[in-house]
Design brief:
It is a single chain. The protein is built from 2 helices and 8 strands, in the order E-H-E-E-E-E-H-E-E-E. With 119 residues, the chain is α/β, with parallel strands linked by helices. A 4-stranded mixed beta sheet has the order 1-4-3-2, covered by helices on one side. A 4-stranded mixed beta sheet has the order 5-8-7-6, covered by helices on one side. A hairpin with a 2-residue loop joins strand 3 and strand 4. It starts with 6 loop residues before the first strand and ends in an 8-residue tail after the last strand. This is VOC domain-containing protein. It comes from Halogeometricum borinquense (strain ATCC 700274 / DSM 11551 / JCM 10706 / KCTC 4070 / PR3).
């Protein structure tokens, strides 16, 4: 039986990166540990741990209920946005990509169809 999980990234810039996710994106600090900060955004747990190098592989995706919420996030991330919100017909989503202070790709999206399982 799985209770949940946490996705961790190494960073050389934990304080600034954590501030982006808490102050701009709206995540909350779930647990502060020596050298690691674990954040919560809805049902997602993710953390940043001090490291000698920064891991930027992968995409951190935040899912919203409406396109208006995605548009609001586009305004909030400001210059960190890499593009304007747009329809992605291949995946039937409305989305845009941004970069966090580490250069990691961050996606903000909403599904245009009902998903079978609630998030």
């Amino acid at each position: 039986m799985t209770a949940g999980g946490i996705l961790f990234f190494r960073t050389t810039n934990r304080e600034t990166t954590t501030a982006f996710y808490t102050d701009t994106v709206g995540a909350e600090v779930w647990l502060e540990q020596s050298g690691c900060t674990i954040l919560r955004h809805g049902n997602m747990l993710f953390g940043f741990c001090d490291g000698d190098e920064t891991e930027t592989d992968g995409i951190v995706t935040f899912v919203y209920d409406t396109a208006d919420e995605v548009d609001e996030m586009h305004e909030r991330v400001g210059d960190a946005a890499r593009e304007a919100p747009h329809e992605n017909e291949q995946y039937d989503i409305y989305q845009f990509f941004a970069a966090d202070p580490d250069g990691r790709t961050v996606e903000f999206q909403t599904f245009r169809h009902e998903v079978s399982a609630p998030l």
